[in-house]
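Entry:
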Amino acid sequence: MSAVAYCHRYLRFLLLAAGITGGSSALAQTAPVRPTARLAPGLDANRAGRVLRVSVSSEAGFRQWLAQKQPRATATAEPHQPGLWQVRGATAAELSQCPYIGFVEVADRAARPERQLNGADFAANKVTAVHTRYPQLAGQGLTVSLKESPLDVNDIDFKGRLVNPNPQAPILNAHSTLMATLIAGGGNSAPAGKGAAWQARIAQASYDNLLPDNDATLVSQGVSVQNHSYGVSVENFYGLEARAYDQQVLRRPELLHVFSAGNSGNQPAPAGPYAGLAAVANLTGQFKNSKNTLTVGATDAFGQVAPLSSRGPAADGRIKPELVAFGDGGTSDAAALVSGVSLLVQQAYRDQQGRLPSAALVKAALLNSADDTGRPNVDHVAGYGQADALGAVQAILERRFSEGTVAQGQEQVVTLTVPAGTHRLKATLVWHDPEAAANAPATLLNDLDLTLTRAADAQRWLPWTLSAFPHPDSLALPARRRPNHRDNAEQITLDAPAAGTYQLRVRGYAVPQGPQAFGLVYEFESGLTWVNPTAARTLRTAEAAVLRWQWAGPASTAQLQYRPVGQTAWSTLSASVDLQQQAFRWTAPATSTLAQVRLLTGGVAVESDTFLVASPLAVQVLYSCPEETLLAWKRVPEATQYQLYRLGATHLEPYRLLTDTVVTLPPTDAAARYYAVAPWVGGQVREQGFTANVGPENNGCYVQSFLPAQPVADNMRFNLLLGTTYRLQTLTLERRNADGSFGAVQRLASVPGTTVELADPDPVPGRGEYRVRLDLNNGRTYYSAVEAAFFVRSTADVLVYPVPAVAGEPLTVVGPQDQALHLRVFDLTGRLRLEVTTSSSTLQTLDTRALGRGTFLLRISILGGREVTRRILML
């Protein structure tokens, strides 16, 4: 870019930011404005056939104008959105001439899930640490809404907690089910099925409607967080959808909307101030440009922002996304995780204060606790940093927050006492700003200022503020301490603050629509703590795991060591790890053990929880019989007993505590269907393994499978697989007789094992039906299912059935193995009625629909062999 062009762009940006040119009118305006100001950036004004959304200042005037100027167009009011209409049959250029229309945008954009891969690691954002330290926080009594495609209502991880299940809804994809699992999965299927707020209720909404859902519906469902893990194309403007979301949050201050940023981080903005700039301003949807919501990008497991994670800034230069989180599947996963964490923060506040917090305070807690990643302090890629569930929850539990209001020129002061040894003081201010006009070049209306002052010498610190000038070099500049008149969130950090008294001052710099409520959160970062492993989660033997810790201190290294419990010596995993990396990939031992890891730095050892390394326990169904069901699992060497769980109304519940690894269930208990087991090791119950469905429809009564070795052969051999030989006395192979009864053809007085081969020593040519009789030492008898097989005595034998057959029904022809057959059907006059040459498959089906009723001759020629004739009767 030339110097002249650079200056022109800079001047243009300053004018836009000041609202001097290019601004859109307020909705109440009725006088004509420049048509281009009314159109969404990038909108093709002359394209026909699109469904357009318009904001209208006068319904009567708009309808009258439409009838006179565009009589072929139709208009429909957007439900629950006063002043917004959908218009079909007119172009944007034509609608922009209406003096009662304030803004025109495209309405019919299709939402799509923003997920690509699979995987989750709740330790990356310290969710597992919250589950371990604060087990009482699980989202109880709260409801999350997923604005999505329908989820799987039969998933047992949601049992009893779906607010508005629709069993008839089509499952279009698994995306919504995965998002619901990350947010609020109950962990009933397996530990991986446990979400962040695993006891919260789950409501569903459709992303076919890109505008906010009806307030009354959300209130009736008790929704306090709504997750939006979807996007459209890249849109970089503040449109009617963004405006509507800001309005809704003002009406419902406790409602937090969490949006995925998008997976278009390598795309340029298509229109607006940042048009054409590479890999910036590429959020996937104008609704994500809203001010009073939260937009989340994605990182890898080590906190590095994913290359495809969409970046900011918003159209007017605001910081977007505000947060990032681990999302192996993209920003969909990251947003879902933050939605779950938000529920935990809301619960911590509700349990303490007796009411829900404002979403501004929840947002402040999330932004303030976030771990810095990418460029120092805030930036347009990672926002305020990597979400930290533990830090956000602790800010509320430890009452490190303040709520208040300020009017124009007023100031609220929060006094802090900073302890000695604090590595960093951090404070974040967030408020819900009134909605701006659509396509406004600057959207901040109520402007608050946050400052930090030290009482001892009145030294003052300002918030971190970014350059929003539309040039890659400017957008990449590090944040500077200066007044922020663009964002409705401000953050101040101070490294190595001197101990003493400080003041956080919130001032109403420009509050035309006051008083303005705000949420303020602060923390004192210091020290070294372990995040993962924890006592609540089991590391799998011989599998890679990521050890995680939190470090708030200067650049430093430490020695990382490991020790099985019971041993005195520690082995070194790394002689020098960088504490600021806060993670280390390690392969767990191949054998089960209780263990610890520790970090040695500055002569101080910081040890982790005692954790278990083991293979996950899986319940095996040895048999599921009418009288009882037998379950078993592998023994864990360190376990003293086992906790057996069964699925209750919503979650797995303790059923029995056992020292053995087998248990029998009476029919009434087996009806609960789902069971899981966890070992007691080191005096506490550890993580349960995979859940088994013990129902008879999924399991046999002793018999796991009973199949012929070959469906057609010159012998009758069968393979029998048993779940167990417990109580089993004899096995008998039985063949069906001509009168329908079964007779024994082979009997085993002792059962050699769970895999058995059975044979009929004197089979009858043709089709035979067989079953296995099982006699137990308690007098009970069970039978397998009946299996059919064909016995052919020579390679030239051919079988045809059924004879007689119903006219039009197919005939089955069984020939020698791996030989093709030439089939011809003649009627009794000798006329050829049907001719087919089959493949080399043993069983062939002959279509008889063209034959009708009567007697026919079927001549079967075995290629390279003799010809066989069979008489067939079609009834």
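Residues 527-613 form a domain with the Immunoglobulin-like fold (CATH 2.60.40.10).
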